[in-house]
Amino acid sequence: MQGLTRRQLLAGAAMLPWLLPGALQASVGRARVLVIGGGFAGATAARYLKRQAGQLDVVLIEPKSDFHTCPFSNHVLAGLRELGSLRQDYRALQQQQVLHVREWAREIDLQARQVVLQGGQRLRYDRVLLAPGIDMDWQVIEGYDRNAASRLPHAWQAGAQTALLRRQLQAMDDGGLVIISVPDNPYRCPPGPYERASLIAHYLSQAKPRSKVLILDSKDSFSKQALFQQGWQALYGERIEWVGRAGDGRVVRADAGRRELLCEFGQRHRAAVINLIPPQKAAEIAARSGLVDSSGWVPIRPATFQAREAGDIYVAGDACIAAPMPKSAYSANAQAKVAVAALLADLAGQEPPSAAWRNTCYSALAPGQAVSIAADYGIQEQRLVELPGSLTLSPLQPPAGLRAQEAALADAWYQSICMDAWGHLA
């Protein structure tokens, strides 16, 4: 990309959507804050809590020693990156004196103000920053459970599932069909399945040119639809086919042994590789703690991101209901900062600062070509809203070089947000 250096790209991508208030070190005391989950929201929250109030006792409860990011995992499927390039660890947080407890947090005992670990131990807290991410909702698609996912991977939590789907794509005979099944909203990363289709189509065009991708969608429209479909036609011709719900695209039953899907109105599909992305919900700890509503997600108080049912629990990232903000890494990072600011103000006995958020999402169409969507969010009449006039989309008729520029910005954003959350470059 001409005209911008990598340093300038990183600097631009690093601009924070939220600036924390002045230091509250003198007034928050030595309270204990337990951060549950070490993804984009949890790692960001732990770093900013300790950065803003170094005397806080900040404990990160996360059973894994490292974390693989979902952003850029589609590049791994296409052979454009190695899985190890997505790996983040918690060494920088530990160097900040964040205690990393490698255990599953099973439940929050709201009455006792304790987090119950999988082994039965209990940790006292003054506040909790809950950022556990998602679980798959195994009850929705008949025949699709954890065992079936070993044959029909969802690959919607990066790591072993990503590697499994990549191996299946590599082993598939040329001419084989790849199906991607997409759930209804809300789910993690709304444009993600369509970026996945793009990059898998790129891989097929290089390695298995007689193969195709079929997208079976539970919706009749999707994020960046015009941009994706224009890109598909220009780059891949008829290699990608999309079927919405009205065309019988909603999958209701899976047969992992036969690699077969049954759709709502009776259509059956068999394929060499099936990437079945099921409906999702907040991670199980949220339900066990009585924090979710009938949707399966955690409702929050929009100005502070406190759980609606418990004022000393703050929730950020994919587990919460923060519509119209999408469930994205950028959103999780921004929400964590707002939640930290509100939490510190709460400990100090102060009013929370005014809240503002931004989300930007880049999606790859092919190596070196990407499109984007961005919007700003704020509070109006005690509701979280998209601010009028803030929505921007890549143009359908871009000037020369724009798609390449957005791909470079996507890479810079990824490096920047990983540094912001985990303390080192991806």
Number of helices: 11
Overall structural class, as computed from helix and strand content, comes to alpha/beta
User: What is the correct CATH architecture of the largest domain?
Assistant: 3-Layer(bba) Sandwich
Number of strands: 26
The largest pleated sheet is described as: 8 strands, mixed
- Under CATH, the homologous superfamily of the largest domain reads FAD/NAD(P)-binding domain
**Gyration radius over CA:** 21 Å
- Cα distance, first to last residue? 21 Å
Portion of residues within helices: 25-40%
Are there runs of 5+ residues with pLDDT below 50, and where? 1-24
Highest CATH level, the class of the largest domain: Alpha Beta
Strand order of the largest sheet: 5-2-1-9-21-20-19-22
Give the rounded overall mean pLDDT. Answer: 93
CATH topology of the largest domain: FAD/NAD(P)-binding domain
Count of all domains: 2
Fraction of residues in β-strands: 25-35%
